[in-house]
Amino acid sequence: MKVAVCVKEVPDTSAPKRLDPQTFRLDRSVAGTLNEFDTHAIEEGLQLKDKGGEGEVVAVLMGPERAADSLRKALAIGADRAVHVSDEGLAGSDLVATSKALAKALEREGADVVLFGQQAGDSDGAVLWAAVADRLQLPVVSQAASLEVGDGKVKVKRQTEYGYDVIEAPTPCVIAVSDAINEPRYPSLKGIMGAKKKPHETVALSDLGLGPDDAGEAGSRTEVHGLSEPPARGSSERIEDDGPAAAEKIVEYLSTHKLL
Amino acid sequence: MPTLVYVEHHEGEPVKGSLGVLGKAAQLGDDVAAVLLGSGVENMAETVGRHGASRVLVADDPALETPLPQPRVDVLAKLVESEGFDNVLFGASVLAADVAAGLAARLDAGLNWDLVDLELQDGKLVGKRPALGDSVIAEVGWKSEPRLALVRSGTFEPSESGGRAEVTKVPVEIQDFSKQAVMVEQAHEESQGPSIEDAGVIVAGGRGLGQAENFSLVEDLAKALGGAVAATRAVVDAGWYPYATQVGQTGKTVSPKLYIACGISGAIQHKVGMQGSGTVVAINKDPNAPIFEYSDLAVVGDVHEIVPKLTQLVKERKGS
Amino acid sequence: MSVRPADFPPPFDPAEFVAEPSDPPDERIDVGVLVVGGGPAGLSAAIRLNQLLEESPAVRDRLGEIPVAVVEKGRAPGAHLLSGAVVNPRAFRQLFPGMQSEDMPFRSRVEREGLYYLTPKRSIRLPAPPPMWNHGNFVASISEIGAWLGERAEEGGATLVPETAARKLLVSGGRVVGIRTGDRGRGRNGEELPNFEPGSDITARVTILAEGTQGHLTGVALDRFGLQSRPQVWALGVKEVWEVRKPLDRVIHTMGWPLRGAKKFREFGGSFIYPLGEEHVALGMVVGLDYADATLSVHDLLQELKLHPFVRAILDGGKRVAWGAKTIPEGGFLALPDRFHFPGGMIAGDGAGLVNVPALKGIHYAMHSGMLAAESAFEVLAPGRTAWEPGALESYDQALKESYVWRDLERVRNMRPAFQYGFTRGAMLAGMALNTLGKLPPRDLKLEPDAQVPVFVGDHSAPAPDGQLTFDKLSSVYLSGNKTRDDAPSHLRVDRKVRREVAETWVHMCPAQVYELGGEASPAGNVVDVEVTASNCVQCGAITAKGGRLTPPEGGDGPEYRLM
Fold it and tell me: Which residues contact C16 (CB under 8 A, 6 or more apart)?
């Protein structure tokens, strides 16, 4: 059982985040942390490998050089090998460019199951895996709250607005796991100390058979024009009244604003 | 600027979010087509037509019966290519996100998501999306056509513009790999109320409630409004309510249309979990509570008196 | 009747944190030299060891797969480091011979500086005493220095082990043989959660404790080996980094307001305001923890300081981008341990109290002591030697006593203690010490432990935070990047039923709002319950100075300082 887990480094959630004043994209020059949602995907990959008895869990990360720390953390938690897709030409990639590069990297791996975490703390719209799956021409199931693998197929409980679907698909396939699926393990001390020694490969655009037009700003189809302040919440109304009167005013307010 | 709007449906009805997007598209231009994909869905075409579509395209096939994304990508891709749509709009949902993203890869087309507004600038579509934890709005655009957009759930309200749309059936051809995922059991509407992540209305309780028993006030109001119950870290720590309902930096992040905070002081650790909410109503007896700085309606008063009365009035209004 | 925090000792026994190795031999992790703490002292020790081992492959080969390991409780080196800081580059030059200052992790050279005495509305420039002269020094962020040193240490071959708490000292046969790391994944009541991961034994031939202020195992070792006969005292520093419109052109220190000079208050300290490059300013308030007024809050004093016209002008139009808090050992020479080594190991850096308070310097001493510890460790790693033979690590103490660290600290030894007598008398005594290069006053002044100073409830009150220039504690904690698991067991040991005066002291003292008054626990209302929200804790260490005890929480928990 070979599992590829796609992981991402995101800016620390409480550090003041900056948008690059030129490109308006998230300033990733500050070191970040391994996206917490991806730890669920790593855990799921490790559990699949443990259940299967043998196999390999490969962590694949696309990001700048500094993001190597997050890959190292994935190794510390238990991944066997790391692949870092890193190239200056990838900076500023949108969904089209990112999915293209990731799909190529994953093709190289030929995993039985490709796992993603359900979203990222920065700007993820819960869309990456579907785009990657389409490029790989593999079945995709998202929001997996439970996952069983056996006999060349997977069985997934998918969490939707309406409750749970149960979906089956053959391997190889792409699964995005929700954070309800498991409790990620802590890296063991041996894991932390041994992470440096595990195979850690860096892959550039040319290794993926991609050119400058496929990646980065050139390979992207969306752009950010500028930033503005959100509509001020500041014009807030204030009520200072006793119980019944206040309650009436609240209902009036809700009604006027079509919230009732 | 021909625009295609993906209309999702559930149990025989078009989903409100999709209809809202359709209405917005109709505001932006005349050439708006809606597409319904499923099995036995043609009867929804009329409703869709009344909500802003000048054309309704119906892809009706048993292969599209279950709400799986990849067959939809196949049909939409062919449709967009053959009809030459400039824009393809989606109301966000678990299914729509997978469809829109798959389509973006298939067509190598730009996808902007989590949009809270759409407008035309010099004849080109431009979107607005919150960034950096909803603290700033980014204006986003597309470098080429077709332009794919995922609109944040509940952003636009549907409106019936009347009118009859021309209904056309479209061919359905599904690729082999898209048929590989199979739905064994399909979800049905849950009857225990929405989870806090999906809820359109959330009523949250904090330490100002005084004691665990008083959470019943919050529960009653939530029930009356058809919403979910949430809690702050302080009360979860104190054991008044389960961790699954905790909203905040170390809990869940929610963005309902309406967030009513009862007895919550509003420290930043809580704020970051709900600052994307549409409207925030806060009730607290401390006039200087930080939560009032980011509330739309600040109510200074006693939660124990106000909330039960509010629940009663809401029930009366709703006639239940 | 005077009330002192020391009257309510915490439920803490250092012996709880001493153990024999218990993992089966094949599960133990064995390293050559173990460094506890990834700060300037620890990382300099690792780097120096790398250098020495590089030149002696024979010695290195005897140390196994991991010749040098550095254990760090923060998420990465730098995450738990906080300082002003104006750095004397001397130790960098020693550790990296030939390196130019442009390549060192500093932000800017000190061009100008000023010492100011503040009154509520005015600022008066004073001549700065020589220990405070900073010509040739650099302004830097210690978190950046830590991250940079971490990279150099790894490049040189050391193994960094972040997110790992050193919980117990492993002692066997009367000597330190390593540490036991902390468990992860316990619930609030200590129960094992589904992803429970027990700690492990790390055994080593030499253990260097470089844990910084209030080092946990350092305290345990000082007790276990009877190394500290004189008390240490601490100050609490609360610091912010601001993005500013106008670059600041000088290094600034202030005294006076908002601290009160009268002897009964015992408020010693001041503020620092440093340019951190062109676009940022680092500022902080540092106050000795021997203060007497329970309502004093260093966090709030910093907020008040920003309202002074002198400071407001500097921050005008700017934005707060970082916040942190940490204690500083202030006793100096008179509070140093009697011995800096024990069988099997040594203590370096702030943990050993090597801080020059009048000069506000400690980083280069930490680095130098780390280097000296590495050199002594290297000596005993040679074939035929062990770290616990009698007198083995004596060379470390010797080297420290012959170094500039010792000379500097001895010269200024009475300056801080002088201020126990209030500002005016203190200034006189300090001036005397200064002018005679430490020969006067003739008798060493005695230090009184912070927790033994009686406290009274005064009437400090802070202006309400405005959210632009001044902020509340919870907003500050958020900005520190603090991530501490909500349902983890509390890592703070305090007596939960204490006199009201003591509880109030803790409530105001803690910059992270960890302590709150619970209900009344006595009919007279003068004993109250103390509530502890451990997940707010940024591990500054103030509680240990003033009556409680900080122990390390789960590895990885705590602040994420990047600009501190």
Answer: none
Asked whether the predicted pLDDT for residue A161 surpasses 90, the reply is no
Lowest mean pLDDT among A109-113, A208-212, B253-257, C136-140: B253-257
> Neighbours of A (≥3 Cβ pairs closer than 8 A)?
B, C
Contact C533 B237 (CB under 8 A): yes
Burial call C67-94: b when 16+ CB within 10 Å, e when fewer: bbbbbbbbbbbbbbbbbbbbbbbbbbee
Q: Which of B253, B251, B147, B145 is nearest to B199 (CA)?
A: B253
**Distance (Å, rounded) from C-alpha A168 to C-alpha A148?**
9
* Number of residues that this document lists for chain C: 564
* CB neighbour burial string for A1-19, b if at least 16 within 10 angstroms, e if fewer: bbbbbbbbbbbbbbbbbeb
Chain B contact set for A163 (CB, 8 A) = 187-190
- Give yes or no for residue A24 having a pLDDT over 80: no
Determine which of B196-210, C155-169, C229-243 has the lowest per-residue pLDDT on average: B196-210
Q: Does the CB of B291 have a partner CB in chain C at under 8 Å?
A: no
> Which chains neighbour B (Cβ–Cβ under 8 Å, 3 or more pairs)?
A, C
A21 interface with B at CB cutoff 8 Å: no
* Contact between residue C548 and residue C493 where contact means Cβ atoms under 8 Å apart: yes
Separation between Cα atoms, residue C187 and residue C486, nearest integer Å: 9
CA nearest neighbour of A186 among B250, C188, C184: C184
Name the residue in chain C with its Cα closest to that of A189: C200
User: Cβ contact (<8 Å) for A240 and B279?
Assistant: no
| Residues in C touching A184 (Cβ below 8 Å) | 195
- Are A186 and C197 an interchain contact pair (Cβ–Cβ within 8 Å)? yes
pLDDT tens digit sequence for C409-429:
998 887 777 766 666 666 777
Q: Measured between alpha carbons, how far is residue C477 from residues B206, C470, C471, C515 in Å? A: 20, 14, 10, 14
> Is there a contact between B267 and C475 if contact means CB atoms under 8 Å apart?
yes
In this complex, the residue of B130, B306, B318 whose CB is nearest that of residue A230 is: B130
Q: Which residues of B touch C478 (CB under 8 A)?
A: 249, 267-269, 272
Rounded mean pLDDT of C208-233? 96
Which of C324, C235, C299 has its CA nearest to residue C545? Answer: C235
Contacts of B237 in chain C (CB under 8 A): 486, 533
pLDDT tens digit sequence for B154-187? 788 888 887 788 999 999 999 999 999 999 999 8
- A239 touches C at CB < 8 Å: no
Do C75 and C40 contact (CB within 8 A), yes or no?
no
Q: Which pair of tokens denotes residue C146?
A: 């830590």
Pick from B70, B100, B150: which is nearest to A139 by CB?
B70
Q: Furthest-apart CA pair in chain B: how many Å?
A: 63
Report how far residue C232's alpha carbon sits from residue C243's, in angstroms, rounded to the nearest whole number: 36
Query: Which of C164, C167, C183, C538 to substitute to test the interface with A, most A CBs within 10 Å?
Result: C164
Contact (CB, 8 A) for C76 and C556 = no
